[in-house]
Amino acid sequence: MCGIIGMLNKDGKRIDGSLIAEGLSLMDERGNGQGAGYAAYGIYPDFKEYYALHVFLDNLKEAKVDVEQEIERWGYIVYSEEIPTSEKGTIEGEKIPYRYFFKPDPRKLLGREYNEQDAIVEMVMRINAKRSGALVFSSGKNMGIFKASAWPEDVARFYKIKKYKGYMWLGHNRYPTNTPGWWGGAHPFGLLDWSVVHNGEITSYGTNKRYVESFGYNCTMLTDTEVVTYLFDHLIRKHQLPLGLTGNALAPKFWNEIDALDPNVRDVQTALRLTYSAAAMNGPFAIVVANTNGFIALTDRIKLRPLVVGSKDKTVYVSSEEAAIRAMEPSLDRIYNPLAGEPVVHQLEGHAQ
Amino acid sequence: MNSNFIPTKYDVYVDPQRCRLCERCVENCSYGVFRRDRDRILTFPSNCAVCHRCISFCPADAITISRRVVQYRQHPLWDEEAREDIYNQARTGKVILGGMGNAKYYPNIFDRLVLDACQITSPSIDPLREPMETRVYLGKKPKQLKVSGEGNDVCLKTQLTPNLMLETPIMVAHMSYGAVSLNTQLSFARAVRELGTYMGSGEGGLHKALYPYKDNIIVQVASGRFGVKPSYLNRAAAIEIKAGQGAKPGIGGHLPGEKVNADISKTRMMPEGTDAISPAPHHDIYSIEDLAQLVRALKEATNWEKPVFVKIAAVHNAAAVAAGIARADADAVVVDGFRGGTGAAPKVLRDNVGIPIEAAIASIDEKLRKQGIRNEISIIASGGMRNSSDLTKAIALGADAVYVGTAALVAMGCRVCGKCYTGLCPWGIATQREDLVSRLDPERGALQVQNLLTAWTHELKELMGAAGINSIESLRGNRDRLRGYLLDENILDVLDVKTVGA
User: Fold this and answer.
1) Does A304 touch chain B (CB under 8 A)?
2) Which of A169, B13, B399, B443 has its CA 20 to 30 A from that of A134?
3) What is the per-residue DSSP string for B92-139?
């Protein structure tokens, strides 16, 4: 059991993180204090041209030198600093959160078929696979992930989350079962500007993992959420599938539903299931996956994990529990339970302000 | 006296107190074990194949068959089998033939693999209350789907090649008309049509009586090319090129002339009463590029409407061969493990050549994934699947579907007596003798096969549900849901499976 939450202002209006922290903290029942985190979009307008790398460092000596050497093999660090935190020493198993604003340099990647985003993915995979005291947990532009092994309200305080302003926020409260409650295992998971919060346990992990690995992704974090991140990256960024169809690929409609569709739609859904059978996720899950343009929320095909969606004017809320949405916005225009496996897609209509 | 004498293996005893002298045993035994002598039944146990036909027809329950133990001096190396094989060969100078599959006591990997179930952190799924999908599509899949438009206006820009749709991942293996009776094939055909799955024709052509079932039949093209003609290829759901067989990797086939009656000669397009010899290799396949040509020729002959499968025996480099097959435009690779059955095979090959299906599936699936071509081809596994757990494990190791041969025969009464090559099968299965064939009622046979596959599908669904999986594609290659129990590290490595407790 975990708690997930998200909100998006479709006009791109930015609000600080205190609201999402309040909503998430209302669902403490769903976690056990071993992991919580937030993803925020639109928080680094001054550095929006650069990839913001959030890195957990074991120390500020070898680990930092190592990771900087690796990063500089791929491009330039334009600015770096320790991520400001408060109440040092209060959170268990503490790491040093550090951030780099980074620009890849095509000249340093000679001899490769250059694709900037692929280069970033490869760099992140390499650093994380090395396990040398540095873990990149956020690597998108104008967005960032903040997470630790603690209760949601403590993580919010620790990272001074209310000082960041974003047009979209995701949050997660963890009750770890498969892996210990370490900082890297907390959600959201991120790659490029993808971030994922996930409640559930993917019973198809072995199939999904082998599928993404055959396309060069490395699963290093011992958790199924990592694989979800790569699946989205693979289907949407690499294969250019529309968001809705990506949702259908990952939580496929049942064959008897597909068989009953109009021929055109039926053929698309059949082809989708055939092509992406190893990407389909089974077992109980509710996830929210975001990138710069918006988010998709999805549950498994028989909805073994809860998901509620609410809206008020141009703001959309999604959460494991209705109460958390109502805590963020007491006077909603609409609130409903999406159907099992129904992709809920909301995109930015304006530009981030 | 004969220095190559082999003691009789069984005692057949007819209890005179119970026997009613109805002579059903005499009538039913095609091996000549029983004879009526005035008011008693004489037995000739050395003829006995232990097929149980007599026992099942005796109304008085008067017949007992038991192992007759004739003590040899015990020796760990020169065991009974070693000595008896030598006596046999010293007498005949011939290759020893055996029916059914590998009869050596190799450790069985399936028996050392355990499946997973959900407890608390994720719920198991009750297949009686929730949908549980076992539908499988066999054939090529695109690596990437290209579409245009959004929502209801989405259009496919990627063209899919034909696939076979199975409602359950279990098919009935290829057993030719000739090796088995027409009633056997008819039983299979009715069962698979009812279940929404497929059967193999075997290499003996397709008898007219099977034409109505053509949409559920995969026709085989083997090295003898018996019965192969354009109408044969087109009268099928898919075509399978048989390059090898698990029970006898590296050699061809041989149907004795005695089995080639008028009907079989017509179906196979060969003279009556002559031996049907399938050569070891296809004489037009001496390398992988030749296979590619044949695959394309068959597709061309069928207007690119039929998937083409290629069947190989599970041998040491099966994975590399499978990758070659995938690149030769084939739609599925059928891999037949060293426990695969047969009507007749030289015992030395049957028992000593090839590798277990478990290792073959795992290595093929892995090789195809590593090369990024797993989507190019489906994997069909066969060879010694005894129950639903075997096939569930096979799928978890990476197979898309399985073929069952022996199990389907057993469902119709086969006792695995291994005397298929004599043509005297008293159950009407592996025989062409009309009186014996008529013992198998295709309707009843179909029902029994259908029952078996239905039961296995139910059990597969239970196993999937317990593991919290509600569609078969999430089981396929999901080796994280398997654990090895007392398997050594090397095998665990090949299977890419963790040990129990890990």
Assistant:
1) yes
2) A169
3) H-SPPEE-SS--S-PPPSGGGEEE----SSS----TTTS--B--EEES
How many angstroms away from the CA of B481 is the closest CA of chain A?
7
Question: Does the beta-carbon distance from A304 to B370 stay under 8 Å?
Answer: no
Domain architecture of chain A: domains with CATH:
3-347 (3.60.20.10)
Answer whether A306 touches B (CB < 8 Å): no
User: DSSP of A47-97, one letter per residue?
Assistant: GTTSEEEEEEES-SSHHHHHHHHHHHTTEEEEEEEEPP-SSTT-STT--EE
Question: What whole-number distance in Å separates Cα of residue B323 and Cα of residue B327?
Answer: 6
A2 is catalytic: yes
CB of A43 closer than 8 Å to CB of A166 = yes
Residue A60: burial class (beta carbons within 10 Å; 0-12, 13-18, 19+): exposed
Using the predicted structure, report yes or no on whether residue B383 has a pLDDT greater than 80. Answer: yes
Residue B67 token pair? 């192992």
Query: Sheet containing B482-484: which strands, arranged edge to edge?
Result: B113-115, B482-484, B498-499
Nearest beta carbon to residue A206 from set B125, B160, B481: B481
Residue with tokens 């935190």: A85
Q: Is B367 on the interface with A (CB under 8 A)?
A: no
Distance CA A76, CA B33 (A): 89
B174, B201 Cβ separation under 8 angstroms: yes
Whether A288 contacts A295, CB under 8 Å: yes
Q: What is the mean pLDDT of residues A178-183?
A: 74
Whether A245 has a pLDDT exceeding 70, the answer reads: yes
Distance CA B330, CA B162 (A): 12
Backbone angles phi, psi at B169, to 5 degrees: -80, 25
- DSSP annotation string for B151-177: GGG-EE-SPPPP-EEESSSEEEPP--B
pTM of the predicted model, to two decimals? 0.94
ipTM of the complex as predicted: 0.92
d(CA A7, CA B39): 93
Residues of B in contact with A274 (CB under 8 A): 137, 141, 160, 163
Cβ contact, residue pair B474, A204, below 8 Å: yes
Q: DSSP character for B202?
A: -
Asked if A271 and B142 come within 8 Å (Cβ–Cβ), the reply is yes
Q: Which residue among B144, B146, B474 places its CB closest to the CB of A207?
A: B474
- Opening angle at CA A280, ends A263 and B460, nearest 5: 95
Decide if A268 and B156 are in contact by the 8 Å CB cutoff.
Answer: yes
pLDDT digit string, tens, across residues A103-134: 998 888 766 666 888 889 889 989 988 877 89
How far is Cα of residue A277 from the mean position of the Cα atoms in its chain? 23
Interface check B401 vs A, CB under 8 A = no
- Residues B451, B443: Cα–Cα separation, whole Å: 12
Contact A201 B147 (CB under 8 A): no
pLDDT digits (tens, 9 = 90+) for A198-243: 999 899 999 999 999 999 888 876 678 889 989 999 999 999 999 9
* Total Cβ atoms within 10 A of residue A331: 6
Check CB contact of A228 with chain B, cutoff 8 Å: no
Pull the structure tokens for residue A318: 């999604």
Which residues fall within 8 angstroms of residue A185, CB to CB, at 6 or more apart?
A35, A174, A176, A179, A221, A222, A223
Judge: A206–B478 Cβ closer than 8 Å, yes or no: yes
Mean pLDDT of chain A: 92
Which of A2, A67, A125, A288 is an active site residue?
A: A2
Q: What domains appear along chain B, each with residue ranges and CATH number?
A: 10-94 (3.30.70.20), 163-470 (3.20.20.70)
| pLDDT tens-digit readout, A251-282 | 999 999 999 999 999 999 999 999 999 999 99
Closest CB to B477: pick one of A272, A275, A278.
A278
What is the C-alpha to C-alpha distance for residues B39 and B420, in angstroms, rounded to an integer? 33
